[in-house]
Amino acid sequence: xxxxxxxxxxxxxxxxxxxxxxxxxxxxxxxxxxxxxxxxxxxxxxxxxxxxxxxxxxxxxxxxxxxxxxxxxxxxxxxxxxxxxxxxxxxxxxxxxxxxxxxxxxxxxxxxxxxxxxxxxxxxxxxxxxxxxxxxxxxxxxxxxxxxxxxxxxxxxxxxxxxxxxxxxxxxxxxxxxxxxxxxxxxx
Length: 188
Description:
Layout: E1 2-7, E2 17-18, H1 28-41, E3 48-50, H2 54-66, E4 73-74, E5 89-90, H3 96-104, H4 117-134, E6 138-142, H5 144-154, H6 159-168, E7 178-182
Parallel strand pairs: 1-6, 3-4, 3-6
Antiparallel strand pairs: 1-7, 2-5
Helix pairs in contact: 1-2, 4-5, 4-6, 5-6
């Protein structure tokens, strides 16, 4: 099974703003550039899964026909983390004590009263398990957080280990970037 993870294009949001589950648009230029790069690089005919947030669904809806793939399948389990009342606030405006509390418990803390990384890891693990049962290649359009957790899940970690690994390592995943997860099949 080969999973091709794709990060959405850059959303329309100011630098330094906390956003996770916020449903942000992307510019037409960013979308066009990302579509051009991906349509030339990705295999055709694979199922396309997408986070239901518009920065992903716009890309998925326009990419699937270019790849001669079926209509995208939206799955809320691969949406980005919910930062609660931190959403759409400048990181600099979030009280330092709250940031420190999150840093002290990266796995279980609920930033802004929203979702913990462990909760997100649980839904990502359930999505991954469903894909494994299907045993077919797929393209997954999602978010940097989901990509990091899917990658950790692919190594065999349980949700707590996934959350810890993803939370401890800052991501270097660019907008529109891909990450390929390849599973060994029997006999290889």
